């Protein structure tokens, strides 16, 4: 009986539908862990980039020189650097037109920065929706596999004259594996989603604060010039 209740034996002898549920949950878990490690790397890099750029921005250097340095970085500029680059580029472009009012210049730069901010947030939030979906649906998918497996186990009991524990135990055990797999897939996804959502929210707040502070600086420069 011990060998009959081994994990591999139970999975191999489960009904095709339960095996399909288990395979789906394993695949979801593998993809989730891949995305978890990817988001950890991306968010860590975003925090370091924000710290580095804030230090450069508030060092008191010339904004034009900073813009040229960021512009030379091309696609490597992300986060605050990308927002700064979009705002200063639009500010400089509109400033060349003497017919544009100072407030219109600032508002144009602000709109460009909001577009860049939205693009940055989309990049940070990438894959979070999948983690949320796995976290919310995996337990129910596992429960479905369990219910189906137990139902098949009891249907099989109807074909025997005397029901014993040795007959019903394997069917119930293989069914419960689906629930365990559902929880195994869901728990890391939920934890990662909550953690990364908080990290993204913190970065979003930092980006918004920078955008507002930089807008104030551009407003002063627009009226001075």
UniProtKB/TrEMBL annotation:
Per the record, its GO cellular-component terms are: plasma membrane
The membrane topology noted for this protein in its Swiss-Prot or TrEMBL record is: Multi-pass membrane protein
UniProt keyword Protein transport present: no
Mind telling me which InterPro entries this protein's record contains? ExbB/TolQ_transport (IPR050790), MotA_ExbB_proton_chnl (IPR002898), Tol-Pal_TolQ (IPR014163)
Q: Where are the transmembrane segments?
A: 20-37, 128-151, 171-193
* Pfam families assigned to the protein according to its UniProt record, in alphabetical order: MotA_ExbB (PF01618)
Q: Where in the cell is it found?
A: Cell inner membrane; Cell membrane
Q: Does the keyword Membrane apply?
A: yes
Q: Which family does it belong to?
A: Belongs to the ExbB/TolQ family.
Give the quaternary structure: The Tol-Pal system is composed of five core proteins: the inner membrane proteins TolA, TolQ and TolR, the periplasmic protein TolB and the outer membrane protein Pal. They form a network linking the inner and outer membranes and the peptidoglycan layer.
| NCBIfam families the UniProt entry points to | tolQ (TIGR02796)
Q: What does this protein do?
A: Part of the Tol-Pal system, which plays a role in outer membrane invagination during cell division and is important for maintaining outer membrane integrity.
This chain belongs to the protein called Tol-Pal system protein TolQ
Native species: Solemya velesiana gill symbiont
Classification of source organism? Bacteria, Pseudomonadati, Pseudomonadota, Gammaproteobacteria, sulfur-oxidizing symbionts
Q: Gene name on record?
A: tolQ
């Amino acid at each position: 009986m011990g060998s009959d209740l081994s994990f591999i034996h139970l999975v191999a002898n489960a009904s095709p539908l339960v095996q399909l549920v288990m395979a789906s949950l394993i695949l979801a878990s593998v993809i989730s862990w891949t995305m978890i490690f990817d988001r950890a790397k991306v968010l860590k890099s975003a925090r370091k980039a924000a710290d580095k750029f804030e230090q450069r921005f508030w060092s008191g250097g010339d904004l034009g020189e900073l813009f040229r340095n960021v512009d030379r970085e091309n696609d490597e500029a992300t986060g605050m650097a990308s927002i700064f680059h979009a705002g200063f580029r639009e500010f400089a472009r509109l400033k060349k037109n003497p017919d544009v009012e100072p407030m219109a210049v600032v508002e144009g730069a602000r709109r460009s920065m909001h577009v860049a901010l939205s693009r940055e947030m989309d990049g940070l939030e990438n894959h979070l929706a999948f983690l949320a979906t796995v976290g919310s649906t995996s337990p129910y998918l596992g429960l479905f596999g369990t219910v189906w497996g137990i139902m098949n186990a009891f249907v099989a009991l109807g074909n025997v004259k005397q029901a014993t524990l040795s007959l019903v135990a394997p069917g119930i055990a293989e069914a419960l594996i689906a629930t365990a797999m559902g929880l195994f897939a869901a728990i890391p996804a939920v934890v990662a989603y909550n953690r990364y959502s908080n990290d993204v929210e913190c970065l979003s707040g930092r980006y918004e604060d920078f955008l507002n502070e930089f807008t104030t600086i551009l407003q002063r420069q627009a009226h001075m010039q």
